[in-house]
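2024-03-11 09:14:02 DEBUG pipeline.ingest accepted 1 chain
2024-03-11 09:14:02 DEBUG pipeline.ingest length=423
2024-03-11 09:14:03 DEBUG pipeline.predict start
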Amino acid sequence: MSFRLTRALLEAHGLAAVPPERERDAVLRSVDQVLLGADEAPLVVALLERAGVATLRVRTVLAEGGRGESPVGGPGRDWRRAALERGMLLSRPGHGAIGVLQREHLAVPGQMLLHAGPPTAGGAFGMLALAADAIEAAAVLAGGDLRRRRPRVAAVELTESPPIGAGGADLALAVLARAWEAAEVPDVIEFGGEGVSRLPMSERVGAAWLLAEAGVPSLFPSDEMTRAALAALGREHDWRRLEAVADGPATWSVSLASLEPALAPIAPAAGGCAVPAAPRALRAEVGRPVERVLVGPAATLEDLARLAARLSGRRIAAGTEGVVAAGSRAMLDRAVAAGIVATLLEAGLRVVEGEAAPPGSGSGSGLACGVSPSLLGGARGDWRLGGIEAAAAAMLAGALAMPVEGGGTLPEPVPVVSVEPWW
């Protein structure tokens, strides 16, 4: 069963129906965007150079251009020059995480993205993002088809409204818990139902990002809330409506009203990576001391505004460090203009650009929101992932604590003209 969103997008991009016995022979004939991480971009460009591919099949290709100095095509030839010659968009150093830049500037409802490297929360905007390795990405850019099994889709019907203190991260953890309990993790999770309209855009982004970090792309419908979010980014012209029309019973039904704040311990995985482990209810760990609370680049501007509202007129607990790493320079500029950064600094936080690495030594506990598990996996100490409300409560208490209402009003983000983030 599905809400037909995934099927419609796949078929619009050339994935033809095949008999069950040939499902692994399904071919995706087109994608709209390719996203390359800092580790994958030099290899992809090198493969294209060696194959003599000068013109790319995919119109929009984003590559993280701040790292990776290995030359391609001979001594002295930087891979970034070869990438620019092929029309790729390279992110400028200091302008933000590549996944955040893609979400802010290029996430478009109804489009298909292939990412080799960091996952993206484009599913919150109705954009289906599929993972690939560098060789697959290079083949698609050169004009080849992407051979994929038709994905197994789980339809999640959302009802009611989320309570104060619970949001997108908690929704993602609840859905992952259902999938792990069923021992059948789907290839794509589609969200639908009347509860979607009551889920703010920042919470959709939080859910889509955390699911993507767990290896499960998700897809939300594109509605008036999506339109408003794109308009706030100056991209209302990219909006199109995508409705979630069910063609049978939902795989799972989730009452947003039943959500409660949850935490996911960071567990090691194969290949030295780290992934969110089975979630635990926050209330079961209340009182556990927290030495550092890290709000990372996947957090939205609305998340930072909510954090500022909770901390307004207060100071974080002595002995607990609070750090906010803005996901992009544009987001940081808007947060400064809205007074969000000033409020956070007055509360005792540090605000930085780019990634804020967790400490490499020590044995204390840490709580992270919007931080990739891969970054936390190499840190010493005991780290957990949670939502922005849990992060605010931990900063104030110096320990894991249940979110509470209070603080100031949400500051109004204001538009800021930022420098183009691409070379």
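2024-03-11 09:14:41 DEBUG pipeline.report The first strand starts at residue 27 and ends at 28.
2024-03-11 09:14:41 DEBUG pipeline.predict end
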